[in-house]
Structures are given as C-alpha cells and as structure tokens.
Amino acid sequence: xxxxxxxxxxxxxxxxxxxxxxxxxxxxxxxxxxxxxxxxxxxxxxxxxxxxxxxxxxxxxxxxxxxxxxxxxxxxxxxxxxxx
Amino acid sequence: xxxxxxxxxxxxxxxxxxxxxxxxxxxxxxxxxxxxxxxxxxxxxxxxxxxxxxxxxxxxxxxxxxxxxxxxxxxxxxxxxxxxxxxxxxxxxxxxxxxxxxxxxxxxxxxxxxxxxxxxxxxxxxxxxxxxxxxxxxxxxxxxxxxxxxxxxxxxxxxxxxxxxxxxxxxxxxxxxxxxxxxxxxxxxxxxxxxxxxxxxxxxxxxxxxxxxxxxxxxxxxxxxxxxxxxxxxxxxxxxxxxxxxxxxxxxxxxxxxxxxxxxxxxxxxxxxxxxxxxxxxxxxxxxxxxxxxxxxxxxxxxxxxxxxxxxxxxxxxxxxxxxxxxxxxxxxxxxxxxxxxxxxxxxxxxxxxxxxxxxxxxxx
Lengths: 84, 365
Fold this sequence. Notes:
The complex is a heterodimer.
Chain A: H1 5-24, H2 42-53, H3 64-70
Chain B: E1 12-17, H1 26-41, E2 47-50, E3 58-63, E4 81-83, E5 94-97, E6 102-103, E7 109-110, H2 111-122, H3 151-161, E8 187-191, E9 194-199, E10 202-206, E11 214-217, H4 218-221, E12 231-235, E13 240-245, E14 248-253, E15 256-257, E16 263-264, E17 279-282, E18 288-293, E19 296-301, E20 306-307, E21 313-314, H5 315-319, E22 327-331, E23 334-339, E24 342-347, E25 352-358
Parallel strand pairs in B: 1-2, 1-3, 3-5, 6-7
Antiparallel strand pairs in B: 4-5, 8-9, 9-10, 10-11, 12-13, 13-14, 14-15, 14-16, 17-18, 18-19, 19-20, 19-21, 22-23, 23-24, 24-25
C-alpha cells in the first residue's frame, strides 16, 4: 500500500535529521539496533547536543525550531569533533 | 579552536585560486577572497600572498558534488562550502559548492562572508556557538562594507597566532545577551504583536507566546537595511513600521520594505537643523506620533501627515523627566521611555511616570 502522507513526511524528516546529525554531530552511520545500549538512543543524544550548541530548547526531539535551524544554509564542517 | 590545536608553523602564508565560478566576474571573486583574507591578517601577525601557478598553502576552488575528498557537496543550499585545518597537501584548502548562487552582494550567498568563515577553519578555528560570530555554523549575510570581525572570532584566532602587530589592537562587536544588565537599546518598536529591540547589527525579538528571546541579525530579514537603527515606531492602523537612521527613514509594510525608501526625514516636516531622530512611538489612541531628538520632542499628525504646530517642546514639559530618550514604544496604553539601562513607564492619561524599571525587564531573565 502507498505510505500515508504523514508517515512519508515523518520518514523524510527523520532521514533529514539523521543525515544532519551524521554530517555535523558525528552520529554513527551504522548504529544497528542490536548495538543500542540500554540508555538513550544515539539520535536523541546527538539531537540534544545540537540543540545545546545552537542555544535551542534541549528536547531531544526534532521540534519545529530545531528543524528550522537544521534547514539553514551552513558550512560543511562538523560542529563537534575533528573534521579530517 | 579545532581539536588538537592545529596551526600553521609560519606566519607568512600563500593562497591560490584554482578555478573561478562563472556566476561572478573574475575580478569580483579575487576581491571577495582578498578581503576575506584581510579579515584575519588585520587581527593577527599572519600575512597572505596570492600566487598564480604553484602549490600554495591554501588552495581555493569551486567543486561539484563528489570531488574526491570524502565530503561530497549537496547541490544548492544546505552545505555551502568546507575547508581543511592547517597542514600539508589538502590542509588549509577551501572548497566552495559550485551549485550555490555566489554573489558579491546580499543576493544568493555572499562569497566574501563564506570565504572569511572557511578561512577561519583553514587557520585552525572550529565553529563557535556565539550566534553573532563569523565562525557560527549557519550562513548570515552582512553587508561586506559594514563587516567587522566579532570579538569572539578575534579572541579565537589570537589564541592560536597571537595578537596583531598593529599599535592599536583591533576589537570587534560583541553579541548582545538579552539578560545582560548593562544592555541598552538603539531603538524599539512593536511589530504585529511582537516587540523588536534594535541593538547594533542585531534585533532581539520578544514574541508574546515564546519564552526564548530570539536574537537575529537585522540583515537576516532586511538585507538592505543598515545596522544601527536609531528610532522606530509602528503605525498599527496602516500596518507599517518606520525605521530611522541619521537623516533617512524606511517604511516596512508588514515585514517588507516599501519600495522607494529610504527617504529624508525632512519629508516628515523636520527642519534641516535636525540631523537624526533618537526615538519614536505612535500613540494608538490619538494617532499622533511622538519623535524624540536631543532633549526635545515633536508631535506628528498621521492623518494630516504633518507636524503639529508649537513643537518641538522640552521632554521634561510633557513627560516629567529631564532625560534623553534612546528608544520608546507603547504597549497596553502605557508609553515606555528608555534611557540607557533604565526605562520609565509613562501613563499618558495621568500624564506622569508611574514606574521605573531595568531596560531588560521585557526579557524573562
């Protein structure tokens, strides 16, 4: 069945958020579920890191303000970790 | 500072522009990049010499998508450019995404601003979380003619290379902090339910339903407006905001600058002896606009579009306080007059000041 539009949007948003955090906040590209530790999922952790960096409210969720910031044109260098 | 503190071991560096974007004249690309280098040489002992045909320390080029450095570009918008930390080979090099709309002004992406940012990385800086810093990760336009390297960036680069050799050490603008008790304002206006506080290049937005005070560059919304707005007021009836600087004023209709502005303030009836307006507010009940210049105030009739006779008058004669007003606005019938770190709440009906507060009291500190 075709995916319901909302679900499709949500999937695209999540993909966008994931790619942003992989590019700029060294979210591991290959975080397989079985590697997930008992704590917070890595994506939420990295999202909080990004929100803290930009002075946004640290929610760990891709809220509208966070998405708005992610969509801004920017430099390709990561905000954390060393870019080699 | 980039992890590991990479830095160039010498102060006299070379750069080479490997190729040019067809979107700008070659001379404009040269000029933008030359100016970007001077941003950093002005505040450090570093010097940059352009070379034409040999390997340079910093190689600048425009590239498409995957350009074999493990960091493919993503087409228009998104990632605009990237650069490598100091080092041999690709170290220090700057790559621009050729698919961006590169320009020398406020349209598209200004090549000077982006180059200056990337050179920060080429010299060993990483991103700053100061929203006013050049090394802040997201793009924001500033008129190159007005560009001043912010203090945050000066501190960063001098931590790596030391101070400039200039007799007078350069300093830069500091990003205003909403809860800084010493914060003062250039101008304040309401704008469709928000309150906009102008300070230098910045505007602080107080939205009734948001907890956070948002700080943006004025140029983010209005690239053609100058920084340092000196007075502003909203005419709610006409959905207009008038913004003043020196002897000129602009009109916003909603959020857009009305074509045909700026115009001269004399157009409003000021005599030529008035060189600037310090503050202004529109009285929502009478429809009159009050302008403040030095220690006097004027009254303008918005319906007749002319100054009322018998003005200017002394501020103290009407407002009961012998002050110079930096900024003013009206909210819920009260007029708030700002002078430095203090604001005075004036009741137009009682014709007296009923309260005195800190200027920053509007921010939920």
